[in-house]
Design a protein that fits this description.
With about 210 residues, the chain is α/β, with parallel strands linked by helices. The protein has one domain: TIM Barrel. It is about 20% helix and about 25% strand. It has 4 helices and 8 strands, in the order E-E-H-E-H-E-E-E-E-H-E-H. It has an 8-stranded mixed beta sheet with strand order 1-2-3-4-5-6-7-8. Strand 2, helix 1 and strand 3 form a beta-alpha-beta unit. The chain is globular. It starts with a strand and ends with a helix. About 30% of the residues are buried. It binds S-adenosylmethionine, ligand 2KA, iron/sulfur cluster and magnesium ion. The site of S-adenosylmethionine has 18 residues, from strand 4 and strand 6.
Amino acid sequence: MFATLQGEGAHAGRASVFCRFTGCNLWSGREEDRHKAACSFCDTDFIGTDGTGGGRFATPKDLARALSDCWQDEAGDHPGRYVVFTGGEPLLQIDDPLIEAVRAAGFEIAIESNGTIAAPSGIDWICVSPKPASVVTQRSGQELKLVFPQKALPPSLFEEWDFTHFWLQPMDGPDRVANTAAAVAYCLKNPRWRLSLQTHKLIGIP
Ligand SMILES: C[S@@+](CC[C@H](N)C(=O)[O-])C[C@H]1O[C@@H](n2cnc3c(N)ncnc32)[C@H](O)[C@@H]1O
Ligand SMILES: Nc1nc2[nH]cc(C(=O)O)c2c(=O)[nH]1
Ligand code: SF4
Ligand SMILES: [Mg+2]
């Protein structure tokens, strides 16, 4: 759990508390399993609960209190606290009592999800990022953020889905520069798609 600026998508630049759940249903998180994982390009360490601000929280209220402690608002004058639940796959763990407790603490709630599990109600901002060898059940929300390119997942597959924003996010890794050029070229010819850069990586914040 850490305070940072949302780096991606429509809320890039927005002060946020990030809460990264451990565990994912599309990769074990272990390097030796990466080659056989449904999702093999993940840029994130989501194993364990000993990361920055990490831990196990006994009750939804305890987690909500920790989020509140993490939220930095010097003047205390901003009504909207903003939390981004990510992971790993956050929808493996988020439930109604947690949403209720976090809302009661004054947070607007966003998730970053692979979309394989339907989101419960009460989430304000749903970002779905489809992955190969998986079935996306959450086909509506605020943003569809496709890591690009993925051979099995051309952007055209998603254009009828019910999202407000459609993003291409260049796949980070050894081919990042070429992937970025390909995403730019695609957006130029398919203006419904917009480019999402991982701006936090560009400036060296978490
Ligand atoms: C680490 S995932 C966690 C949330 C969820 N499991 C998911 O896949 O959406 C957070 C975001 O990072 C994106 N991402 C993961 N690896 C990436 C990579 N190598 N390059 C660009 N984006 C990546 C995901 O697609 C997702 O939008
Ligand atoms: N700053 C920042 N913005 C992000 N947006 C989505 C992220 C994620 O890993 O889910 C992420 C992240 O890891 N850091
Ligand atoms: S689904 Fe998300 S967390 Fe899981 S391995 Fe893929 S990018 Fe990483
Ligand atoms: Mg990230």
